[in-house]
Write a structure and sequence with these properties.
Two copies of one chain form a homodimer. Chain A is an alpha/beta fold and 346 residues long. Chain A folds into two domains: 85 residues, Winged helix-like DNA-binding domain superfamily/Winged helix DNA-binding domain (Arc Repressor Mutant, subunit A); 243 residues, 3-Layer(aba) Sandwich (Rossmann fold). Chain A contains 17 helices and ten strands. In chain A, strands 6-5-4-7-8-10-9 form a seven-stranded mixed beta sheet, with helices on both faces. In chain A, strand 9 and strand 10 form a beta hairpin. In chain A, helix 5 crosses helix 6 and helix 15 crosses helix 17. The N and C termini of chain A lie far apart (51 Å). The relative contact order of chain A is 0.09. The interface between A and B is large, with 79 and 79 residues. Chains A, B: It comes from Glaucidium brasilianum (Ferruginous pygmy-owl). Chains A, B: InterPro entries: COMT-like, COMT_C, COMT_dimerisation, SAM-dependent_MTases_sf, WH-like_DNA-bd_sf, WH_DNA-bd_sf. Chains A, B: Pathway: Aromatic compound metabolism; melatonin biosynthesis; melatonin from serotonin: step 1/2. Chains A, B: Its EC number is 2.1.1.4.
């Protein structure tokens, strides 16, 4: 598309306008179980058959399926018996619940929680704070209190984070050679998918998931198999309770939830607990130094405004926070995917 | 991106997931007046200056501006006084309120009304009906009663439709030579932007906007200048009241609001009123015959589910509806933009 065409007809603006339609079509096909049914059935199905099996209207289902065809999430074949739909390969891998790389849970979190918070983006920008009160009628003073407002919400959030590590976990853990560190704490480790990637990638490591008591209970019940002896748990609030000694601390998507003061406070505490020769691994989505991108990270930084007290930062900003806490020899690795890695040493 | 990369890392799925973030960033920058301020100021401004002038938080505004840079809706320049932001050309033309091609009003309608209806897309697909009740607590029995539930909502809707015709109106009216028809009725002509395009493109034509009484009042007050003598008005409900005789009837984005029965009923009435040798021009977004796209039209058809009693249709489906009403010599012209044209003759 040349720039003259751009100006004569605003293709890009129309595309941005339809962004929420695209998101909701994909989320809804996931939520209703379209991709799961087509995976299980093993053969292409008609719109009517899918509607009956999933208990939906036929008029709604037919349009949903056709929009998924337009998004290349489904394929359609026009046969003598009518249109028959099947999954594309990418849908089988990422949009079915049972796949090891399933993104189903993060999509449900996006669709049912984040989408509604973002309805109040203009208010968030005006006020400079999160929008749980407008979206869900709950106090926004403690963002994690709001995010974990019910067992169901906590489970959705934890499962969602695990989805992300199923596609990004290996890259952030392989960004640096972490094999010298055998005793690792994953602060705010939640559902434990990153811890599991870690013990799988570094067979000599043990990882302790440090998180709020209710999160640890949920992780044990729902996510981390009891036979995984290289993963341990520690219940606590890392701002108010002590942090035990270890060789490496992972802070994965933690600092982005908090303002600079709280980050400094937490990193100082981590530095104090850390064994000499040990270190801290930050896993975050890094902004370019010149504010030009990446777009995903800029959007996530807005999401931090809408949902937390934090923001996304540049590599320089994270390095300064680490150095202010006492860490040195700071190294940065961009993975080319959503999340990057920053390592500081004591 | 090769298909192997696709399967290893679901770039397309991440992009679809972020679609609603992209929409809301653009809508919010419009709503807060960022593009208007940068157009008026005539010089690049800092994030802090913009926040002060627009009465928003600095932390929220900075991130909003940076995300707009990522979307190429703003440009940033890093100077000694810090980052300075300016509009891109496309933003000046399409995202400022004062521009003749402004899309501001349709974006406000999308952002504040359509976005919330779409939160309930899964329910819409399950139930096969619109979601005004869940989104706004109002009865969904009469979609236009719901859409026009307040003067403000009606104004937003009418202004939004006018935005669309400012970029697509000329193409749909020039798709066929309409100069033989001088006496034209625009049924459901709303805010009149298409009527204005029509009298400008066909100087010998007069166009009567036929719409509900309250819509006509609003069109006269807000949109159509009284000195435009080639545009007249007719107050009525085209399903329940009579339709006067004319040479050409325009039904622009009307049939897509209704099911096949109501379309047949309306077209039969139009055929009866139409002068011999006259015709009807349907302006709609046409689906491909093989259900493969266009994506925008598939998405709009889902929107018809969420907001109306209708759907988008293929050229063949519209031709059949026209022929069932008695119209012949049906011709179809795709414009390559959002809306296409179908002409039937009596």
């Amino acid at each position: 598309m040349s720039s003259t065409e751009d100006l004569d007809y605003p293709q890009i603006i129309l595309q941005y306008s339809s962004g929420f339609l695209v998101s909701k079509v994909m989320f809804t096909a996931c939520e209703l179980g379209v991709f799961d049914l087509l995976l299980e059935s093993g053969e292409p199905l008609s719109s009517d058959a899918i509607a009956v099996r999933l208990g939906t209207s036929t008029t709604g289902m037919e349009r949903l399926l056709d929009a998924c065809v337009g998004l290349k999430l489904l394929r359609v074949e026009l046969t003598q018996e009518g249109a028959l739909y099947r999954n594309t390969e990418i849908s089988n891998i990422y949009l079915t619940k049972s796949s090891p790389k399933s993104q189903y849970h993060i999509m449900m979190y996006y669709s049912n929680t984040v989408y509604l918070c973002w309805h109040y983006l203009a208010d968030a920008v005006r006020e400079g704070r999160n929008q749980y009160e407008r979206a869900f009628g709950i106090s926004s003073k403690d963002p994690f209190g709001a995010m974990y407002r019910s067992e169901e919400e906590m489970l959705k959030f934890m499962a969602g984070q695990n989805s992300i590590w199923s596609i990004c976990g290996r890259d952030v853990l392989a960004a640096f050679d972490l094999s010298p560190f055998s005793q690792i704490y994953d602060l705010g480790g939640g559902g434990g998918a990153l811890a599991q990637e870690c013990v799988s990638l570094y067979p000599n490591s043990t990882v302790t998931i440090y998180d709020l008591s209710e999160v640890v209970q949920m992780a044990k019940e729902q996510f981390v198999p009891p036979e995984e002896h290289r993963i341990a748990f520690h219940e606590g609030d890392f701002f108010n309770d002590s942090i035990p000694e270890a060789e490496l601390y992972i802070l994965s998507k933690i600092l982005h939830d908090w303002d600079d003061d709280k980050c400094r406070q937490l990193l100082a505490k981590v530095y104090k607990a850390c064994k000499p020769g040990g270190g801290v691994l930050l896993v975050e989505s890094l902004l370019n130094e010149d504010k030009s991108g990446p777009l995903e990270t800029q959007l996530y930084s807005m999401n931090m405004l809408v949902q937390t007290e934090g923001k996304e930062r540049t590599a320089t900003e994270y390095s300064k926070l680490l150095e202010a806490a006492g860490f040195g020899d700071v190294q940065v690795k961009r993975t080319g995917k959503l999340y990057d890695a920053v390592l500081g040493k004591k």
